[in-house]
Amino acid sequence: MKLVLLLLVAVLVLALWRPGFGFRAQRLAHYADTGPAFDIQERLSGTLISEGMIYGPRGRVVSRFVARMNGEWDGATGTLSEDFAYANGSTQARKWYLTMGEDGHFTATADDIIGEGKGQQMGATVRLTYRIRLPEDAGGHVLDVTDWMYLMDNGTILNRSEMRKFGIKVAELIATMRPAEG
Hints:
This protein is mainly beta. Helix content is 11%, strand content 54%.
């Protein structure tokens, strides 16, 4: 019993201590002088293709997907429609509503987002944080998500997302986004 309690305390200490390392150590300021400049109104506009994978808590791939996305902007407000096709044959449609603010800040909402996501673009990067409620068939869990998107020189966007529950990482997403050809 003492060993189990000691292990539990050790896991909690590591989970709380780790923000200074790895994924959670990133700050937008680290990328302020990088280029090309990531302007989401430009880069998340038109038809995009996304390909990615979701890793479970043990680091194994649990899902793969291809998504067709379409971004439209009217001044400072935009929508990003996403149609996912997963390797297991399931599909999902989502729509983000984006509103630009001052100094590269923006907000993001969607039907499965609790409250309002907060984002900022700086240099070649975008960071977005939000709470998402998973579909009931995926457990209906509420997760805290941090998305980092990096604009590459060739126009491809690399997206890395970390999903946490009670501060513990439960999933990670890696995806590319690029303009659709033709």
